[in-house]
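Your task
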Amino acid sequence: EYRDYATGGLSFTPDTGELQAAAFLYEHRHIGDFHLQGALRFDMRAITPDDEYYSIIIGQIEERNFSGASGSLSAEWEWMYTHWLGLTLSSTWRAPGTEELFSGGPHLAAYSYEIGNPLLNAERGLGSELYLRVERARASGRFTIFSNYFKNYIFPAYTGRRSQQRNDLYEYRYEGQDALMSGLEFQGDLELNSVIHLNGSMSYVSGDLVDRDVPLPQMPPLSAKVG
């Protein structure tokens, strides 16, 4: 994937080219009542500004290159042909993007002035997920609980200062900090008759910055829907 990033107006984000590539391997095996899955993925990202210079707002604008690997293992136990109990363990990797490194301008949809951090390193995460899946003739459902620990989780942090470029907006600077996210999800479907089907879902996630022991900003609220 190649992206040619360019902005105008009141934005100081530099024009930048961003190249991404990935290779992955996925395997699936059945052993008796168990279903086993494994995956490996290697990613690289090269972010190259059209010009390299020092910005008093953002910092040193220069080329950044990232590469890293992710992987996951999953085991699912089939119980009575209608119930499945599964566990997934994963290790993830994500490189920062152009906006997180070099942003320098207003984000009017969020009523903020966002400033990048050219010194950011890649995110790394360790995750676990436990789920129960049920499938019957006229009903199905899945309930999941999960927990993910992130090293260097990247997010726009509120500074409490107003922007010198836009005094009506507060500054948010991208940071990388250790974070823990835990939550649960549910989704289900019920066939009442041949013409009426009900479905619903619910999700909740709680995030905390580990070192500071404070809630992670911009976490979505508890949400649910019925159709």
Summary: The chain has one helix and 15 strands.
